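Hey, I'm writing a tutorial for new members on how sequence and structure tokens pair up, and I'd like a real worked example in the thread rather than a made-up one. If someone can provide the structure for the chain below, I'll link this post from the tutorial.
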Amino acid sequence: MSPKDFYNKCISGNLLESDFDIGSKQRKGSIRRKINVLNDAMNLFVAGKKIVVEEKFVKNKVVCSFATSDNTCTLGFILENNAKPKTLLKGNELKNITDVGLIVEKDIYSDKVKRVVYNPNSYSEDEIIDIILDR
């Protein structure tokens, strides 16, 4: 399945086990757990949720730059120019956690902030500027 077809099936909620060449029973269970929490991952940064982060996340053979969790799922990322998802796990698999207080999306070609993604502390615009500028 092409990445585009996979993405479209994920968004439409039509991704099925039969869409994968699964192989072993162990892989089948792992894929089933990922499918079961895919919707949770899509709503990870919704306002009102508490999320935590761990830098240099490692789980078995999977190594991520960082991972985040809301206790329903753990989403691991790799940093290559920007953050890209690398793994999805059921439950909270983080060990050395730090609370997340703010997530912003920056413009890829500059340091300008495009939008606030997650702001559980309801920081004002001035406070966000101070945080970003480390004042």
